[in-house]
Structure prediction request, 516 residues.
Amino acid sequence: MSSVLLDNWELFRIGFLTTIKLFLVAGALSLVLGTLLAACRVSSLPALRAVGTGYVNTMRSTPLVLVFAFLVFAAPKMGVELPSFFWAAIAALTAYTSAFICEVVRSGINTVPAGQAEAARSVGMTFLQVLGIVVLPQAFRAIMPPLTSTAIALLKNTTIAAGFSVVEAGSIPAAMAERGENQMVTLFWITVGFLILILPLMLAQRWAERRAAVPA
Amino acid sequence: MKIRNLSIAGALAVILVATGCGKEGTPGGSAAGACGPPAPLPVANGINLADSPTFARIRGRGHVVVGVKADQPGLAYKDASGNRCGFDVEIARLMSAGLGFDPGSIEYKEIPSANREAAIQAGEVDYYVGSYTINDKRKEQISFAGPYIIAGQSLLVRKDEKDITGKDTLKGKKVCSATGTTSIQRVRDMGLTEPGNIVEFKTGSECVSQLLDGKVDTNTTDDAILKGYAAASPDELKLVGETFSEEKYGIGLALSDKPLREAMNDVLAKAGADGTWQKLYDSTLGKSGIPAVPPAPERY
Prediction:
């Protein structure tokens, strides 16, 4: 059982390393873009609200594989060339995940009573100040659990990149099948790998929840 | 407002489907065309493999269930109207006829490479014919009749390609293969091109489409697979260089079923001797213009 892992260690190491890179870069970018989109969706400008809503509705209803296929196969034909398949994958994952993060952040914003924003506004704060100093810090406390779920979903979604020329954990089964290795054992070790990656996310959630908790 | 947004989303999704997904089917669909009628094969009489559990299962059912691939023109291909053709398909039909079951009644199941062993072990298919290289690791899980053809890693390029003449001329060239294939692992391990020039897509057909579009410079995998693409687009594609590996394709079947394996090897040996094998090859992969001879089955 362990020989399947040890004999092919390089394959697993390189695969999971790329998975981690995809996750961290796409995760950070999605968090930024998702929060910006949420700001658009709650802004008082109808144009910004329309952009935010349109984006979220489009991306949330498009299968991730199609987002990948569009960026890798169709975009170059329209003259949009991404620097590498890795960055095409980052773009696809970010475009998709930020739509979900936007909705998570927006639902967090809605948990903050309107009176908070009104009070902040009445002491002369700008829209961005109200959002950045008063509303978002309170909102992020409420969204830790769903945000972690979205992060875990992103981590697993990275495996789609294997079909679009990024060698990551999702491409291990194909390579192992070609080497004639047992597929069940291969999948077992990939599962273990993902559990190991998800563990810190769960711990981070617990830590953040405890830190942000309102003392009783 | 809501409705309009939804319709925009819908329209975009349609565009995505049209541009992204339509692409995938293009190379096989347009280039390989429709399958012709299969070669007539005499059905054997009075075959009885008393000790073969697979044979008992086939007889109970009345027809064989074969695992195949479907996206390799010339080798294992399913056309738009559902007909199958190609050298692997002909071998699958030859086996069915040799065991005494009408090849017209074969039930085909498309099994991707990664699931082959599992499908054979679970009895989901009676045997598997689909660019299945015989190797020792696989022999621990299943067994092989054959080989029925000896393939080797080769290179497919555009007809006007001048620079690529063999495996040592790949430096600086974009090399494409299906995700994780032995072929692309070999290119990476031997450092035949820079890591940044290695491109892997889910299926080999996507690589062919990228090659025709000029996005990559060559496709690499077993010559048996590449010959099929060359035969489908003889004016646009060609194979170059010597093969640089040896892949013996076998028929995968249950590990313990030695009687069936022996019977299949007998059928293969006979087809090799009486010219049937040659006829099947010439009508499929042979259309690429590259000749081949039947290998002797390896009995074990």
